[in-house]
Fold:
Amino acid sequence: MLTLILLRHAKSSWDDSSLDDFDRPLARRGEAAAPRMGAYMKAQGLAPDLILCSSAVRARQTLDLVLPQLPGKPEVHHEKGLYLAPPDALLARIRKIDPKMRQVMVVGHDPGMHMLAVELSGSGEPARLEALARKFPTAALAVIRFKGRVWSNVGPAKGALELFVSPKMLD
Structure:
């Protein structure tokens, strides 16, 4: 079984209008939410072998706050190609993952992350699927499990949505 953990970057700041979108940092709210989501992931037994993270500042900062909460020493790759990637590009990247990696986390952006999560989730608790379909808030987490042993077979409606949680749901 394969586990895909999709984590949207935490809330970013719009305070400095001179910054390019790529360079926007986290807002205070994001700085508070990211470690809470990391602690939640640890409590759920999530321990990624591999983390693929957008190289945008807000995604890297989110991961920096989540990572200390997670068990183990996952392999981490910061990839510019994940920045604002559409769902087909995200799926193409996921399909290239080495099969020895059983739990993989992707830290990225909307709308691609949201669209990918909805596309891959063919089953799951109806209320969870409905919540995911409505919105993928900042710092939200979707955990999708796939039967099978190779990432190259991951595709639309082949996954089961096991978890969908946002920081507000933890309050």
